[in-house]
Amino acid sequence: MENKMSNRKYEAVKKLDVANKKVVAIITYSILITILPLGWWMANFGEVMFKSRQPNRIIVSIITIIGIIFYSYYLNFCNKSQISRIEFIWMLFTAFFVRLALGGAISGHPIDVNCFKAWMNIASTDMFNIYEKNVFIDYLPGYLIILELFKNIASIVHSTISDDLLIKLPNILADIAIGVMVLGLKQKCGSRPTREESTIILFNPALILLSSMWGQSDSFVSMLLVMLFVSLVYNAHILVGCVAAYLLFTKPQFILYFPLIVLYWVYNLWLRNRTVDIIKQIISFSIVSGGLYFLFMPHKEILWLPKFFIKIAGEYPYYTVNAFNIYYAGGLNWVKTGGMYNCINIIILAIAYILVLVLIGIGLKKTNDHLIQLRYLLQGGFVIGLLSYNLMTGMHERYSIFAWLFCLMVYVLINDIRWLRISMIISLLTFMNISKVLNLSLSNVYFVQREFSNFLVAIANIVILIVSLYIITSSLLKHKKMCRYDSMNTRKQKKIL
User: Fold this and answer.
1) Do 15 and 53 form a contact (C-beta atoms < 8 A)?
2) Where does the secretion signal sit in this chain (predicted)?
3) Where are the alpha helices (DSSP H) in 365-451?
4) φ, ψ for residue 413 (rounded to 5)?
5) Which residues touch 220 (CB under 8 Å, ≥6 apart)?
6) What is the Cα–Cα distance from 237 to 125, expressed in whole angstroms?
7) Which of 455, 437, 454 is nearest to 446 (CA)?
8) Which of 48-57, 251-260, 300-309 has the lowest mean pLDDT?
9) Which stretches within 53-109 are classed as H helix?
10) Crossing angle of helices 169-188/141-156, nearest 10°?
């Protein structure tokens, strides 16, 4: 009896030891994915900082990197995998101050930052007439409202914060909000977030680079996307409509994903499922979008928004704009497409939505479970994001971040480790792309030459697209086979009865 007890105890200890080793391996992997690219970029960035003769930037950057490394060391040698509430709050503060320090140390992408500063200053004095002024502006009012809001708050409290950091603050705060919402969604789906998941999201190098160092608006848009789908999970129907409308007036690229929401509405109305809830979403969407449309409409320009989208669509008629995709691999960076521009994009978008319809058609089977609906909706967003980035023309280096976001949310909903791995690879490839572009832009170079390392990143992006489509297809076929098996069993049981 004692021998049996000791054997069981030994086996339990052995299992625990194996589990702990797996946890440490995962944490180490996530830390390396986070720290090494950021450290590598800062090392390369050092040359630019020395040229600028601003030693305070070097000191702040070094202290920040050391802080991240020490925090990662602490995570690596902690025994528990699941994160406690206090530790999560501590991680949020750490992630925020890391971004704040880097945001203050580095001015950002010269062209983008200067545009945002100019628009912010104009918007803070004459917000609703901004599209009537004779200035270049290729952003929708949703983000300009945020810039204006932050500028006015800074003026009211007499803050001495620089404009460079002020335009980054919405995106720095958005990064933290993304972490809170995604990890909160994980808990809502039945499992507590782990340290490695928290590290991957909160210390994601691509997000840090975009929000704190580049100064772009992609983090803010990503936050709105997460808020939209979290609102759907929590059945906050009025908020769903409001956020969808605000997104449509914030980033022109959201037009690629907006049909997903329309599909969700049509599908549920067709099923006559939760009709009142869907009508609430559509009404709130119509009110907010109508309000924004007429508030910012230039004098007697009733069709100003369609014209704006057409102008943006034709702004970059190149195969690729520093995006390491199939066109970059073919040596077509900044090469004009000619008359093929719109044709290629329409064909690719049509293919993407055909795949989405197949995905929804096979996967849903008229289900009323809105979580299952969201799972396939998010997978559809991932397919659109990855296909558009790799195959549509005029893509910028940053747009793969939306594919990463959809991939991460799919992982949260279905808890399949393959989706987490894909999201980490996409994040790493995105980081390598935007870091190269930002590094050159700080020396006023805006054309990325064709290099072998960049070519490998482009090939890797294409490979991850093929692998992702294979995983989705195999999962769908397996799901279809299971459905057939279940229906056959049901028929057999009915015959027996």
Assistant:
1) no
2) none
3) 370-391, 400-414, 417-441
4) -75, -35
5) 143, 146, 170, 171, 174, 250
6) 34
7) 437
8) 48-57
9) 55-76, 85-105
10) 110
Determine phi and psi for 446, rounding to 5 degrees: -115, 5
Question: What's 396's DSSP letter?
Answer: E
Between CA 290 and CA 219 the distance in angstroms is 25
Long-range contacts of 464-470 (CB under 8 A, 24+ apart): 464/386, 464/422, 464/425, 464/426, 464/429, 465/386, 465/387, 465/390, 467/422, 468/382, 468/383, 468/386, 468/407, 468/422, 469/355, 469/383
> What Cα–Cα distance (Å) separates residue 45 from each residue in 52, 156, 213, 440, 441?
11, 35, 11, 9, 11
Beta bridge partners of residue 320, listed in sequence order: 333, 395
Please check the confidence at residue 12 and state whether its pLDDT lies above 60: no
Output the pLDDT for position 247. 96
How many helices (H) and strands (E) would you count in the chain?
A: 20, 2
Closest by Cα among 429, 425, 388 to 407: 425
In the chain, what are the domain boundaries? 1-494
What are the tens digits of pLDDT across the range 259-310?
A: 999 999 998 898 877 889 999 999 999 999 999 999 999 887 899 999 888 8
What's the CA dihedral at 344, 345, 348, 353 to 10 degrees? -150
- Identify any residues that bridge with 396 across adjacent strands, giving them in sequence order: 321, 322
Give the DSSP per-residue string, 244-276: HHHHHTT-GGGGGTHHHHHHHHHHHHHTT-SHH
Q: Are 202 and 176 in contact (CB under 8 A)?
A: yes
Q: CA 114, 116, 117, 118 torsion: positive or negative? A: positive
Angle between the N-to-C axes of helices 141-156 and 237-248, in degrees from 0 to 180, rounded to the nearest 10: 100
Largest CA distance in the chain: 90
Chain centroid to Cα 265, Å, comes to 23
